[in-house]
Specification:
Helix 2 links the parallel strand 4 (46-53) and strand 5. The protein is globular. The protein has one domain: Alpha-Beta Complex (Spore Coat Polysaccharide Biosynthesis Protein SpsA, Chain A). Helix content is 36%, strand content 25%. The chain has a 7-stranded mixed beta sheet with strand order 5-4-1-6-10-7-11, sandwiched between helices. Strands 2-3 form a two-stranded antiparallel sheet. It is an alpha/beta fold.
Length: 233
């Protein structure tokens, strides 16, 4: 059953990457975006992949998809001024028969296909689900450099992507945001705004986001470890 459309958000401006285009940085046998596309290509329930990226990156991304043997790539479309606007551009390309929509940061190249599959299953049950991991450190609430509160750590999670929703839930949430002129940096916030209870699907700490230059070095090390695990199975 292929009932899920994946929207890969690759339209960031790389402001923290010292001018480097993070989605096209080499990683493994391809690049960051190629690794992300491959993870969704291998997922049985993914029917199509929609990439949202800057126009200047479209040709490179098409070439990446070709070299990776990506057969599910439907289109590459241009992004908007914000993350939410970029996702909405991708949403316009989703096929009518799609039941669920998976939004993923293209800069999270080490997401496991098995985790994508689990998140899809949970979203189908609860209406929305996101990969996440428990916070390891003690978190403080700070105001003017003074600690004002210490949240209960066992209840704190780091949300990752993909964040997956039933299409009708996500479309309703997007319309709510448009009607009320709201802009969110997290898709779960959209769903939460209309009362959707989003399920946390257990992920792992290797699903990192490439944000700063040192992250690509960390990703290379993690990829070597992941490949070793696979070869030993």
């Amino acid at each position: 059953m292929q009932d899920t459309s994946a929207i890969l958000v690759c339209a960031g401006n790389a402001s923290r990457m010292q001018g480097q285009n993070k989605i096209l940085l080499p990683l493994g046998n391809t690049n960051v975006a190629g690794m992300s596309m491959l993870a969704f290509e291998k997922c049985e329930r993914i029917a199509e992949i929609i990439v949202v990226a800057r126009p200047c990156d479209h040709d490179a991304l098409r070439e990446t998809a070709k070299k990776c043997g990506i057969t599910k790539l439907k289109t590459i479309t241009s992004g908007g001024d914000t993350r939410q606007a970029s996702v909405m551009k991708g949403l316009k390309e989703v096929s009518p028969e799609t039941k669920l929509v998976a939004i993923h940061d293209g800069a999270r190249p080490l997401v496991r296909t098995s985790h994508i599959e689990k998140t899809i299953r949970d979203a189908a049950v609860f209406g929305g689900a996101t990969l996440g991991v428990p916070v390891k450190d003690t978190i403080k609430i700070v105001n003017d450099n003074i600690i004002t509160d210490t949240p209960y750590r066992p209840s704190l999670y780091i949300t990752q992507t993909p964040q997956i929703f039933k299409k009708e839930v996500y479309m309703k949430a997007v319309q709510f945001a448009v009607d009320h002129e709201l802009d969110f940096t997290d898709d779960c916030q959209l769903a939460e705004a209309i009362g959707c209870k989003v399920y946390i699907t257990d992920g792992d700490y290797t699903n990192i986001k490439i944000t700063t230059p040192e992250d690509i070095e960390i990703a290379e090390l993690l990829l070597k470890r992941l490949n070793k695990e696979v070869s030993e199975v």
